[in-house]
Every structure is written in structure tokens, then in C-alpha cells.
Amino acid sequence: MEDITSLAHGHRLHLADGSAADCDLLVGANGARSRVRPLVTPAEPAHTGVNAIELVIPDIDLAHPALSVLVGRDSSWRSAPTARCPRSATATAAPGCT
Fold first, then answer.
1. Cα separation, 44 vs 35, whole angstroms
2. Which of 48, 49, 93, 95 is most enclosed, with most CB atoms within 10 A?
3. 61 with 68: CB under 8 angstroms?
4. What is the mean pLDDT of residues 78-82?
5. Could you tell me which of 40, 59, 48, 53 has the C-alpha nearest to residue 82?
6. Distance CA 26, CA 67 (A)
């Protein structure tokens, strides 16, 4: 995708091969370094100080039955504030930094 034009009822996507495609809804779900976002907004991604981790273990009830009892069969999401850990060996580490 090279560019996006807003239409009265949707968007026109201009593709690298010179063709175009119209859509009613454009979803740019490809992360912080999205190629779609800068085409629709000047907003830049910024770290909010919170990280999220998703854990998915296929067939957990068969492969790891004891763990399945603890976490269930669905995926598990956890988020927590990110500690500001210094990169310098001489700096004082924040609580939670190792």
C-alpha cells in the first residue's frame, strides 16, 4: 500500500503496482510500526510504561493438565507497569530491576 484516499463512504487504497481498491472499513492491525497508521494520522507510537504478555499453549489440557487447571483453556493476558531499569552498571536500579 502506497497511499490512502478518504472517500465519502470509505477509503481508496493505492497499491504499489498502480492499482487501487476501495473499502468501507480499513483496519491497520499490524503493530507499533504499522505501515497503515502514518497514512491516516501523524501520531507516533509511544511507550505508555505498561507491557502486556499473552500466553497461549495449544492443547494445554492434554499437553500440560496441571497447568491447565491453573490457567484454564483460554489464552491468558497479563499486564504490569514497566520498571525503569538503568542500562548503566553504575546507576541505581529501580525496585524490580535485575
1. 12
2. 93
3. yes
4. 68
5. 48
6. 39
% of the chain with per-residue pLDDT over 90:
15
Q: Radius of gyration over alpha carbons of the chain, in Å?
A: 21
Is 65:31 a contact under the CB 8 Å cutoff?
Answer: no
Question: What is the grid cell recorded at 4?
Answer: 490512502
pTM: 0.44
| 30/52 Cα distance (integer angstroms) | 16
Q: What is the distance between the alpha carbons of residues 31 and 56, in angstroms, rounded to a whole number? A: 19
Q: Which of 87, 56, 88 is nearest to 72 (CA)?
A: 56
What per-residue confidence (pLDDT) applies to 1?
Answer: 82
Residue that wins the pLDDT comparison between 49 and 5:
5
Tell me if 28 sits within 8 A of 40, measured CB to CB. Answer: yes
Residue 39 C-alpha cell reads as: 497514512
Classify residue 60 as exposed, middle or buried by CB count within 10 Å of its CB (0-12, 13-18, 19+).
Answer: buried
